[in-house]
User: Fold Tail fiber assembly protein from Providencia alcalifaciens 205/92.
Amino acid sequence: MMQLNNFKQYEPTGENYIESVQFFISDEGIDFYDSFELFKLKYKIGFDKEGIVRTVSEDISAIYPLGLSIADVDSLPAGFSIDGRWIYKNGAIIQYELTSEEQIFFNCRQKQSLLDEATAAIAPLQDAFDLGIATDEERERLMAWKKYRVLLNRVDVSSDNHVQWPQKP
Assistant:
């Protein structure tokens, strides 16, 4: 397992400098691009100062390391995502237990994201309906998405209780 901490931007000197390329260096003094071969395990994760995992990739060159520490791990836990609820601590990825306020914030953010998705799905279907050119299948999908959006709008996210989200059409 490899870990390099707190990458920040810097300008290399001499022949290593390439104009218009961003360079990053860890607290250990290792250039990000030079570190690629050090990370041998399958997954490379980027985590912030609080340990919250912000990015993951099998390809380290796909990670933008500014302000992050990078570590590699063999596997990811079941249900893992980069939604802010997983932390890297003592060489392991563990699920972060949200405070009540954090859970409410997370639920509100999730609700808004789902509402945005529903609205985006409804818009072209509604246009076809308004223009009188909607197919039967488009009308059915329109009604299903509208029903979903109404049910979603009724979900109470004002407490930290487990939220039951309606099923997407």
Q: What stands out?
A: Strands lie at 3-4, 8-10, 23-25, 43-47, 53-57, 69-73, 86-89, 92-95. The mean pLDDT is 93. The CA atoms of residues 10 and 50 lie 23 Å apart.
